[in-house]
Specification:
This protein is an alpha/beta fold and 348 residues long. Helix content is 38%, strand content 18%. The protein has a six-stranded mixed β-sheet, with helices on both faces. Strands 7, 8, 9 and 10 form a four-stranded antiparallel β-sheet that branches.
């Protein structure tokens, strides 16, 4: 292959100690069913899923922003070895962390990622192939750039297909997400025990983020508010906690790109009768909802159960969802348990 299009970099036997945990048999099945000779991945969710690596810090922003000049793509042929296309700043991270063994480096600010991708597709013999791209991850301008470079390329949307591929988790994914959830629980238990009246939201949030990093997470985000704060999801303020306040929280912490994600209810001091009653009801509905998450049950049916369960207690449940799928990079994924959704829980 011409050096200008694809520079192959191998690790000389120094591969990371990481097994492929993505559901590759399911991916192959879906690619065959959709007549795809390859997929070209741009979104952070699917890049992390198939590359097996989580980009840190500033590089993560470049994976998320569609209009950056320092983006990333992953080319995954149905037959043959996948290729990561990235700029030189990220080369060593990919060599260290990804299970993909072929890397093409382009020079950001000098050349376009998408022109390089088109050249690599041509070198791989895919210039007229039917290839899946993500319409929800690739900008219209970059879609047009690739199509202009390869006018006979059959570009089709594979966004929904990739969602469905990720629906069924491998045992490796389950084990990693459980580990992440357990570590996040350890973090919350550690920090909650330190909260005292007078501590501000900002101070407690800082302690949680620090603890997440100390426990081995790559990065973390979330919210933490006192029940005295009437603005939820508005960032952490200098409002101090008071005795009897709820500690409202919703954290996500990432371990090798997979999220530990849970909210744990805490209160400063002993709960009063009303608080205890509300907690008991929520816990009961939560557990009964989990019991209904079985193969063949639709997401809409689970949502309706939650609405009815709270209605029996005189409470109107008005939130738009009761739960969501999990996976790499971004924690809130399909399937989403919301009103009138007909997709079913599945097992394989």
């Amino acid at each position: 292959m011409p050096q200008s299009a694809l520079s192959e970099v191998r690790r000389d036997g120094m591969l990371p100690d990481r097994k492929v945990i993505a559901n590759i048999p399911r991916l192959n099945q879906y690619m065959d069913a959709n007549g795809l000779e390859a997929i070209a991945i741009r979104s952070g969710v699917n890049f992390t899923y198939l590359a097996g690596m989580a980009l840190p810090g500033t590089l993560a922003r470049h994976l998320d922003l569609a209009n950056t000049v320092r983006g990333f793509m992953l080319l995954w042929p149905r037959k043959g070895e996948p290729v990561i296309v990235l700029d030189s700043f990220a080369e060593k991270v990919a060599l260290r962390d990804s299970w993909v063994q072929r890397i093409a480096v382009y020079h950001a600010y000098v050349e376009s990622l998408y022109t390089r991708v088109a050249n690599i597709l041509e070198d791989l013999g895919l210039r007229t192939a039917r290839i899946g791209f993500e319409k929800d991850g690739l900008s219209a301008a970059h879609w047009e750039e690739i199509q202009s470079a390869l006018p006979h390329l059959q570009m089709v949307d594979c966004s929904r297909m990739m969602d469905e591929v990720r629906w069924i988790k491998t045992q490796g994914e389950i084990d990693l997400q459980k580990k992440a959830a357990d570590l996040l629980d350890d973090t919350l238990l550690e920090v909650f025990s330190t909260i005292r009246a007078g501590d501000t939201e900002r101070q407690v949030h800082a302690r949680i983020v620090e603890s997440c990093l100390r426990h081995g997470f790559g990065w973390a985000h979330g919210i933490l508010n006192s029940s005295s704060n009437h603005v939820m999801y508005g960032g952490e303020s200098d409002l101090p906690f008071r005795q009897g306040d709820f500690v409202r929280n919703d954290y996500v912490a990432y371990l090798n790109g997979y999220a530990g994600h849970q909210s744990r209810l805490a209160i400063l001091g002993e709960p009063n009768d009303e608080q205890q009653k509300g907690y008991n009801l929520t816990l009961e509905v939560h557990r009964k909802t989990i019991e209904r998450c079985r193969a063949g049950v639709t997401a809409g049916e689970i949502y309706a159960f939650v609405v009815d369960a709270f209605k029996e207690e005189g409470i109107d449940y008005t939130a738009s969802l009761v739960g969501h799928g999990m996976g790499p990079w971004f924690h809130q994924q399909e399937p989403v348990l919301r009103k009138k959704v007909t997709s079913c829980w599945k097992t394989e």
